Fold each of these.
Amino acid sequence: MDQVPGSPKEPQDARDDDGLPGCHRHPDRPSGIRCTRCDRPICPECMVSASVGFQCPECVRGGAGTGHAPQAAAPRTIAGGTIAADPRLITKILLGLNAAVFVAVLATGGELSPLVHRLDLLGLDADPSRHQLIGVAEGEWYRLLTAMFLHQQIAHFAFNMLSLWWLGPPLEAALGRLRFIALYVLAGLGGSALSYLLAAPGQPSLGASGAIFGLLGATAVLLRRLNYDMKPVLILLGINLAFTFLWPNIAWQAHVGGLVVGAAVAFGMVHAPRDRRTLVHAATCAVAFLAVIAVVWVRTLQLVG
């Protein structure tokens, strides 16, 4: 649970093993970034983008209209999003959607569920000699999206949802809700597209793993942008990639596709120039979406030909 802001001096004394002070509003979160006005440590959830550096929410509220800082309609995150009262709302909604679909799959037959067969098939018929187009190859592009919310095994579902709950809130707080949604969806589509391009024809591919790896890549980009210690996230990324390529029956294409797209989109969001931020964000998302369309189009032409 978030803690009530204390006095400026208390968090200054709270330090982690690396000597970083704790955020003055969330003392359990070490931070190397300080408010440019009061010099108190602030975590990504508390950062408000200013003309120079970042400010804490208290300084933004206290300085608006006083002549000491530009008046702002609302505080902004590092990526330019509006700071929300509940920085976990979209993460909770995504968890709820995944859980609802998972329950529906179990209720309609588990691995034999008609939901799975209607929503996750990507290429040709399982017997390529019949050359019968199914799924995305037949024009059902919506499967690239719906496959992101399908899980068959409890362990698969639980691992992805635990990862979403761990990675989602900090990114949602740092990017803002709309940008977080765009990042999640584009990363998931990137994973589906690469699976469609490289996997064997007719091979089903499902799960939120592509989107989750996109969040992992985005977390690495955000930490690098904030000059945080990169070792923990790089170790985590290395372990996950090792499992991706060594564990059987894992669609590594979805993991790699989601990771690349998520990192690329996050890079455009957190490094965009302040005066052209909205334009750069829109262009970044558009390019990522067009890349997904291009990959799917090329693969479909290969299958049809």
Amino acid sequence: MEIKGIHHVSAITANAKENYHFYTEILGMRLVKKTVNQDDTSVYHLFYADEVGKPGTDLTFFEIPNAGTTYPGINSISGTSLRVPNDAALTYFQDRFNEYNVDQDEISKQGERKVIHFRDPEGQRLTLISDETNTGVAGGNVWERSSVPVDKGIIGLGPSKLTVQDPTPTITVLTEILTFKQVSSYPSPVSGQEDILIFSTGEGGTGAEIHLEVRNDLPKERPGRGSVHHVALRVANEEELAAWRDRLQEFRFPNSGLVERFYFRSLYFRDPNGILFEFATDGPGFTTDEDMDYLGESLALPPYFEDQREVIETKLKPLDTKKSH
């Protein structure tokens, strides 16, 4: 039983069309699955990733059209990182962000790594992180038809940042229930706040870290468009997933039980600070029901929703994701 790293991060958008434009045209990620929220089939669930949606590369969005503004605060997943191959890729994106008027900060250091903090059009808090000096979990492969050069593109998810007021319960969950170890820290960019703690699992590196920020100057976050719903952690298979369910029960943590998501199997629980974690299996993956060349171009529905396709499609705004081949 070992968590292999970050599996995916799921966030909220109020506008699927604009979201699709930003993440594919400006960031150069590939839409590998256009499906629906399985808990509310009236809204899209979009998956952006590397060329095939390799575990550890997926940034996903639920479209909630009436989602309000996010008011940042504690008890939140307050930042999502995206890995790029090297420092030169950061310079490329800095110029690209200037060209597209993306809200960004200057290139800076986060511990030993160079980063660019930036925001999408809805205020989603994002960071490009350089793998120049990285060892650990391998990244994915940029889609050859990406809108950015293959040698500069996003190769996966980096660390997720959690923000809490009382770190003790979250540290206990990470280190005593899960398989994370505290490996380092770096100064908070906010004056007067404690250092941000780095927790690592599995092979380590940018694809296997959670960063924990302590803030005593913020209220509880009010999520909306531009906020993160949950972070999912990689487990090898369904057998391990069941073992994690048993472990959570052993520690008396309420959990969802095993959930069928078709592209992977899941298990959900909240830590005492209210942060929603998911365990997700590495398989079976996104080519289960679509050819690799056509991923994300049509509305994909798991078999158990197929008989509802007509009703589901009438509730969704059309979203053109077809590519010329």
Amino acid sequence: MPLTSISKDLDSLTMTIVAEFPVPVRRLWDAYADPRQIEKFWGPPEYPATFTRHDLYPGGRSEYYMTGPDGDRSAGYWEFLTVEEGHSFEVRDGFAAEDGQANEEMPSMRMEFLFEAAGDGSRLTTTTYFNSADELQQLLNMGMEEGTRAAMAQIDDVVTDLRSFAAGHGVDTQLLGQTQARFTRIIRGSVEQVWQAHHDPELLKRWLLGPDGWVMSEVTVAHAVGDTYRYAWTPEPGVDGEPFALTGELKESAPPYREVTTESMEGFPGPATLNEQTLTPLEDGTLLTLVITYADADMRDSILATGMTGGMETSYARLESEVLSS
């Protein structure tokens, strides 16, 4: 049990939690930075969390929901106010409606997370600032302290697992709800390098090829919100397959961390997907997280059945070996 103390100060309207772990500070930080890891301990065991968005940079946002044993959901959000990589971050934490937006009928609070070395391991100090004594008492009555104790009891198992989330595992795929899929991979390179590799046409032609034997015949990159992009591929002589192209619009952009685009395959009817990509620095490189929202579960499952994940892994491996290692 890593939790060492929980103290409440009714005069300053704060609750401070101190916990210590038998791992380096960077390992503990990475567990909070990686959505695959934080969702294993953010909610108590009977209410596990699912993060549909997790952007650990100043101005970024996280959205998550916790699912109860009867299928009931409680949603929340973080707005990142400050981030000092590897050391601290501060968020506005609140309850959310079903669409992920703030539930203004419920209280929000400010939370500071401080990561420090402690002996042979690390210490995490979390301080929550409440707006009023009534809101503090309301959240305590809702079981905030008990839920925190139960949730933090799970962190040890995550941070001492040095294999499941390390670089070298290829693309991980997780289904989120009925219409989303999350793809994650650690890429050995900096956030800036990975961002550049996604936006430089000449670099894209070197790695975004899918299976061997294909070439990119057109690369039109969207740089500003509202711009459209078009990527086209053609099989080399002797390789089976028909030329195809993907196109869409850039909806959001926060270089070098996050961008959101729509995506459609030319010549195929049907609604576009919404692709949300986030780049997060970790000790082993850059965690690329891609959350794709499909029109429905059938569309998602049929696209995944085409071998999409394998093609993504081939391209990301080529990005490491052909672009970032040179």
Amino acid sequence: MSNRMKNPAEVIPQAFKGIGNLLAAVADGGLPETTTELVAIRVSQLNGCAACLQGHAVRLADVGIPIEKVVGLAAYRESPFFDDAEKVALALADAVTRLADSEDAVSDELWREVTKHYDEKQTAALVLCIATHNLFNRVNVTVREDAEHPFWLR
């Protein structure tokens, strides 16, 4: 599958800079890097973004995510390989990514669970992480970003 156009973040360098700033903010939020990677992969799975999945696959070993978590990610709720904090972060990722699928996508119950495991800064980072990866996915799927050679890995 070929790209429809260059990635907008490549065409408009200010956009790439802005995305980089969002990612830097997420990194400064105090979340474990493994959590941000798992969330990014989960969001990309839900959105069917092959380029993002490939981009995150190359980081798994660097971040220290074991294969059991990668294989079990689609069934994280039932998997014994995720702790409660990771499960709730992934549940929030599911809810935010699928906002239109529910009248109350991010329920008060889910929010209480999130804030039980993460402080305010970490929660802010988690919300930004989910939103940023949804942004990536929507752009990359729209332009059919090359999954084998995404522009940010060239």
